[in-house]
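Here is a typical protein record:
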Amino acid sequence: MSGPVTVGVSLKMYFGHQQAADWFARVAERVRDHPAVASGAVRFFVIPTYLQILPAVRAFEGTPVLIGAQDVATEDAGAFTGEVSAPELAEVGVRVAEIGHAERRRLFGETDEIVAAKAAAALRNDITPVLCIGETERMSGADAAAATIAQLQGDLEGAPAGPVIAAYEPVWAIGAPQPAPAQHIVAVARALRAALGSDPARAGSVVIYGGSAGPGLLTELGDAVDGLFLGRFAHDPDALVAVLDEASALADLESRAGERA
């Protein structure tokens, strides 16, 4: 692992507007004084609904927390009723955009071509894609690695240069009682890292794991991943801070290892 440990949260559509505002306030209070977040050792992002973006930007003002969007239009402007463009999102302070989540692919028919167009829109407007990739069915680590690398390449085809946050989320593990086995995650994450590392256009990219991620997992995975992508577990601010503490400890270990090297 190089650089900060990355921890992100997607709120999906679980919170109403006031509930989200209350959550922002409670989390902002905790992370504002969190030493690892304040120092940049842990990079933390929050992805609310579109209507919650501006309240989130205000709540986390003065902190290093990045605010994201759960989707982005393929085009920058035009007659696209109901869409929200990357230029407008960037204008109001959005720094990352969740793209290609399994629910978008399954419920709304998003193909790799559509995901690639959205990734391109984000990158050309200086928004970092949180690119969700993962196999739909259980398979061996080697087969899963091959499938996700192919998906990664398809989802970035034609996209301009820039770093991405590759969120490895095996579809069969999303919402499951337990995350994927650690050995499986490690095999796929390392393969994704190698694929991104071999592409000069993706310098600075990281690989994080999502899919029933919770406390203890980051410690178990160690430096095989660059962080975690959390879901409903993070609805409890205290539980979220526990993961940030875990990320902080991992970042400290990596820093000490780098000094020894």
The chain has one domain: 5-260. The first helix runs from residue 17 to 31. The mean pLDDT is 94. The radius of gyration is 17 Å.
